[in-house]
């Protein structure tokens, strides 16, 4: 992928950039792997808004992605590299020798015609896109789509341009360095995919105007200090004054901005060797 910048004919275009989609090989998804996506507007089953700033957006289909990679020792050929409107990474349509087709999250090095395989046996040559248990992956390798529980399917490191590094395998656990800088243990029987997630330049896109965010289904977010006191704890006052409180609050009066929300005695604390680094 490359980021495309247009001639700035309008104020919004001057500050925006777009995805060129140069790495996409087809615009027609596999119909058998599509499911209609129903919008929620951020509402739960009772019709109450539980997640704000969600609504509208373009209609889209869900692509059924194979996160488990449980078709072992059967090579697959990459047929297409496609755009998925539900994620920032590219997806690849692979065809197995028995005729079955599946979507996977594509690594950045994958090309049409490449052969990939998922296996639990040691291999001399490991290619980007191959899926293996952590215990047989060479130490120091870049990996993504990592399971937390064997057989559950990949849950970690799935967004564009990300990868984790396998640091060690000792006892029943493998030690991973996550994209955030966190160092944690994962069961060595968990599957992971070799390589780095595709579309690494996605994070450099500048959206430029609110309308492009509305197409993504993201509604406006209004500052609390721009509201009235009845609507938000930060509201009211004269002009551009600070919030005037001991600490920032949510619209419902709870602590906000930098407050730790992780449980003090979470079950996974013993698996985290080093917490993620704070952004400066």
Would you write up a description of this structure?
There is one protein chain. This protein has 280 residues and is mainly beta. The chain has two domains: 3-203, OB fold (Dihydrolipoamide Acetyltransferase, E2P) (Beta Barrel), CATH 2.40.50; 224-280, Ribosomal protein L2, domain 3 (Irregular), CATH 4.10.950. 4% of the residues lie in helices and 23% in strands. The strands form five sheets. Strands 9-16-10-13-14-15-17 form a seven-stranded antiparallel beta sheet, with no helix packed on it. Strands 7-6-5-8 form a four-stranded antiparallel beta sheet, with no helix packed on it. Strands 1-2 form a two-stranded antiparallel ribbon. 22% of the residues are buried. The model has no long low-confidence stretch (mean pLDDT 94).
């Amino acid at each position: 992928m490359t980021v495309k910048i247009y001639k700035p004919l309008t104020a919004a275009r001057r500050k925006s950039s777009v995805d060129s989609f140069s790495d996409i090989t087809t615009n027609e998804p596999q119909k058998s792997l599509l499911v209609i996506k129903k919008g929620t507007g951020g509402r739960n089953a009772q019709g109450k808004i539980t997640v704000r700033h969600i609504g509208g957006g373009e209609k889209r289909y869900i692509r059924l992605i194979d996160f488990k990679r449980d078709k072992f020792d059967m090579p697959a050929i990459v047929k297409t590299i496609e755009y998925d409107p539900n994620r920032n990474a590219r997806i690849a349509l692979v065809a197995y020798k028995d005729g079955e087709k599946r979507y996977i999250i594509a690594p950045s090095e994958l090309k049409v015609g490449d052969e990939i395989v998922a296996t639990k046996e040691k291999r001399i040559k490991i290619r980007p896109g191959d899926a293996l248990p952590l215990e047989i992956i060479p130490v120091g390798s870049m990996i993504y789509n990592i399971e937390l529980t064997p057989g559950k399917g990949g849950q970690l490191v799935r967004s564009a341009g990300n990868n984790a590094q396998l640091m060690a395998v000792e006892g029943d656990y493998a030690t991973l360095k996550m994209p955030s800088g966190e160092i944690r243990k994962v069961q060595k029987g968990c599957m992971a995919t070799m390589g780095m997630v595709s579309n690494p330049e996605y994070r450099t896109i500048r959206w430029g105007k609110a309308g492009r965010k509305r197409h993504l289904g993201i509604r406006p977010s209004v500052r609390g200090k721009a509201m009235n006191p009845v609507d938000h704890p930060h509201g009211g006052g004269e002009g551009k004054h600070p919030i005037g409180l001991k600490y920032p609050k949510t619209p419902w009066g709870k602590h906000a901005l930098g407050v730790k929300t992780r449980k003090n005695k979470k079950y996974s604390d013993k698996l985290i060797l080093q917490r993620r680094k704070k952004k400066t």
